[in-house]
Amino acid sequence: MHQRTTPPTGPTGPTATPRRGRTARKALLAASALGVVTALLTPLRAGAAPAPASTAGAAPTAATPLAANGQLSVCGRRLCNASGRAVALNGMSTHGTQWYAQCVTDGSLDALARDWRSDVLRVSTYVQEGGYETDPAGFTARAQKFVDAAHARGMYAVIDWHMLTPGDPNANLDRAKTFFTAMAKKYKNHPGVLYEIANEPSGVSWPAIKSYAERIIPVIRAQDPDAVVLVGTRAWSSFGVSEGSDESEVVNNPVNATNIMYTFHFYAASHREEYLRTLDRASDRLPVFVTEFGTQNYAGEGANDFAMSQRYLDLMKRKKISWTNWNYSDDHRSGAVFKTGTCAGGTWTGTGVLKEAGVWIRDRIRA
Q: Does 47 score more than 50 pLDDT?
């Protein structure tokens, strides 16, 4: 949660179209752009041989998560589909794409969509640490490539602006405006995106984070007025708990915007009862999306605490809270789902290529 900034070690080293018209186009795109994926899904789940690995350019056929649910929105405290029914997305987050782009391939995403049966891929574009600031055009194109690949397989995509150090999102305000303008312009007619505007603010007040959100959300809305926006919370998206506060600061001073959710992150071996209670309380008052969690300590490493993790998952299932797990890579840390070296090979399915945490989270996503 707090320490994932070091590069890998080891072998792998304004005017918007009226809302109804735009939403209708997004619904049509969800239905028509998704033709091929269920044809790919069904035979595999029936035990037949898998379809070819690459689905680039293919038009998906049936009830993938995206085809089944269409344009998402926030209704009350829940995430709802195009029919107004509360839904919960479950899936995976990439690692930083400056380090682990080789883990986000046609084969790995086929496995995530078909073998894991994931609903969503969080695409994490680090701002610093050798990320976006070093090549804005290149990292924007890379994020779009991975979002497109998720859509081609019928998954939603969370576009994650992975600001971490510095912890004040306002330090990267101009970069964020440029990035989200480009992303929202590309996906303004697509139902399959959610925008996560600040990964883990830290060392900064909630009013400063709120001010940032109220400056970035209009940038997105100018291009894409319908998509759900995910707002990071204080103290590494812990609703302030990691810095001695709690969710009341958000409850009492919410962001002045609609169709938004607030993010919460936890690492089960480090974040115990106080964090679990905070998630429970906050989700009674606010719409919450857990865009990142792990079964290990706050650095995404060390021993797995599956018992505590399951308590979180049980709570999230009961309250229909969506989540993505950190992370879909072969980093040497225990929080990466693949065994080190997997991304250099071509085998992605089944449990033989997975670490202990990978086997556990794959089972939960499939369930």
A: no
Model pLDDT for residues 13-31, shown as the tens digit of each residue: 322 333 334 555 565 555 5
Catalytic residue among 129, 196, 249, 292: 292
Evaluate whether 34 touches 67 at the Cβ level (below 8 Å). yes
274: left (phi over 0), alpha (psi -120 to 50) or beta: alpha
Cα angle, residue 326 at apex, residues 4 and 101 outer, rounded to 5°: 75
Task: Please work out, in degrees rounded to the nearest 5, the angle formed at the alpha carbon of residue 159 by the alpha carbons of 157 and 162.
Answer: 135
CB atoms < 10 A from the CB of 294, how many?
A: 32
pLDDT at 22: 53
Query: pLDDT-derived band of residue 32, with 50, 70 and 90 as boundaries?
Result: very low
Tokens coding 119: 């609903």
Output the pTM of the full model.
Answer: 0.87
In the numeric block, which tokens belong to residue 355? 């670490």
Residue 294, H or E segment = strand 288-294
56 has pLDDT over 60: no
What b/e readout covers 49-78, taking b as 16+ CB neighbours within 10 angstroms? eebeeebeebebbbebbbbbbbbbbbeebb
Rounded distance between C-alpha atoms, residue 346 and residue 47, angstroms: 20
> For residue 150, which amino acid is it?
A
- Residue closest to 142 by CA, chosen among 157, 128, 123, 127: 123
How many angstroms separate the CA atoms of 46 and 280, rounded?
A: 38
- Active site (annotated) includes residue 249: no
**Which pLDDT score is estimated for 232?**
98
Tokens matching residue 350: 């089944």
Q: Please check the confidence at residue 213 and state whether its pLDDT lies above 70.
A: yes
213, two tokens? 């959100």
129 a catalytic residue: no
SS3 content of the chain, % helix, strand, coil (to 5): 40, 15, 45
User: Do you know the residue count of the chain?
Assistant: 367
Whole-angstrom distance, CA of residue 134 vs CA of residue 265 = 27
Which residue among the candidates 200, 247, 249, 301 is catalytic per the annotation? 200
Q: To 5 degrees, how large is the angle CA 176–CA 178–CA 181?
A: 100
C-alpha span between 158 and 309 (Å, rounded): 22
SS3 159: strand
